From TrEMBL:
Belongs to the class-V pyridoxal-phosphate-dependent aminotransferase family. NifS/IscS subfamily. InterPro entries: Aminotrans_V_dom, Cysteine_dSase, PyrdxlP-dep_Trfase, PyrdxlP-dep_Trfase_major, PyrdxlP-dep_Trfase_small. It holds the Pfam family Aminotran_5. This is Cysteine desulfurase. PANTHER family: CYSTEINE DESULFURASE, CYSTEINE DESULFURYLASE FAMILY MEMBER. Residues 3-361 form the Aminotransferase class V domain.
């Protein structure tokens, strides 16, 4: 069954799976133990830390392993409860692992401002400047959106934050493995990542924390991860993530060109097959291979069901439940009318997709939207 939902998760890479199996089978020692088995597990963790640091041009000491991107986001946001300045600026299209956390932290004294995005899903620098207050302690804006694929002008936004001494955090879960990312260029204080978005395992991620950036642990205990994240480390998961990041870094150009070619072929075929289709997002600044498409007059949940009957898997930004469909908050934020909102699907290509796959998808969409 062709899978076109790589923004949701990715199939694990065979090399990653092999790495995890080998580590699970041969290196069971607790990394905190001082005997040989423990030291071997510790060495595997540090090898992965170095692989990841190298991929984003960071120092290994700036990499903190977590249980995923959501935990990494939480670590940064909860830190605000321990700082003097408790106001956060974020955007209207952030992941729930940012927006819901901020809402949850309000009773603890955290306040936040949500700045709008344009109809392409991008933040305007002037809106960010105007939202800054004397008590602003953090700016948190994602690098690339998970629904429409828009890429933010992140470097210019970080420069604004730096000019007034405000720490900057970015949820970069969707970016790593799809576009080039170096902390020497993207000079954020914190970046959140997840392994399963780039052909790695689920349940493991990491936080990049620039040296001297404040951070308070969510989990307290044994003092692992330099006292930032207690608990015995997931050695196979970390090893698999290190391998996944290494492969993504080494094959970035090849993978990027592959999905860009698939995207170009798909859109050409889709426009030929469909009488009415709207491509959303930012045409010049979006993740390669990520397409948000609206099919007016066709509910997205019905489209997804019809595609699955044809053995093709895509996703919708809308939430379905009890026979009803709720509009996507991200699509609302870019000013999309409700009728178009609930007729929108997300397609995201990956390394295993072929030209034949995407042509068939386009033709099938043409058939089911006309019928």
């Amino acid at each position: 069954m062709p899978y076109f939902d790589h923004c949701a998760t990715t199939p694990i890479h065979p090399d990653v799976l092999e790495k995890m199996y080998t580590v699970s089978k041969n290196h069971f020692g607790n990394p905190s133990s001082t005997h040989s088995s423990g030291r071997k597990s510790r060495a595997i963790i540090e090898e992965a830390r170095c692989q990841i640091a190298s991929a984003i041009n960071a120092s290994p000491s700036e990499i903190i392993f977590t249980g995923g991107g959501s935990e990494a986001n939480n670590m940064v946001l909860w830190t605000l409860t321990q700082t003097e300045k408790k106001h956060v600026i974020t955007s209207a299209i952030e992941h729930p692992a940012v927006l819901k956390v901020l809402n949850h932290l309000e009773p603890l004294g955290i306040t936040y401002s949500i700045i709008p995005v344009n109809n392409h899903g991008r933040v305007n620098a002037d809106n960010l400047k105007n939202a800054i207050r004397s008590d602003t302690g953090l700016i948190s804006i994602m690098m690339a959106n998970n629904e429409v694929g828009s890429i933010q002008p992140i470097i210019s936004l970080i420069k604004i934050a730096k000019s007034v001494g405000i720490p900057f955090h970015s949820d970069t879960v969707q970016a790593l493995g799809k576009i080039a990312l170096s902390v020497q260029e993207v000079e954020a204080d914190y970046l959140s990542f997840s392994a399963h978005k780039l052909y790695g395992p689920k349940g493991v991620g990491f936080l990049y924390k620039r040296k001297d950036a404040p951070l308070h642990p969510l989990v307290i205990g044994g003092g692992q991860e330099s006292n930032f994240r207690a608990g015995t480390e997931n050695v196979p998961g970390i090893a698999g993530m290190g391998e996944a990041v290494r492969l993504a870094s080494e094959n970035l150009t090849k993978r990027k060109e592959h999905v860009e070619n698939l995207e170009s072929t798909f859109i050409t075929q889709l426009n030929q097959a469909c009488d009415k289709v709207i491509i959303n997002g930012c045409p010049n600044h979006h993740l390669p291979g990520v397409i948000s498409a609206s099919f007016p007059g066709n509910r997205s949940d019905i489209l997804l069901a019809k595609l699955e009957r044809e053995n093709m898997e895509v996703s919708s930004g809308s939430a379905c439940g009890s026979g009803s469909i709720q509009p996507s908050a991200v699509l609302e934020a870019i000013g999309m009318p409700e009728e178009q909102n609930i007729s929108t699907i997300r397609i995201s290509f990956g390394r295993e997709n072929t030209e034949e796959d995407v042509i068939r998808l386009a033709k099938t969409l043409g058939s089911i939207t006309r019928g």
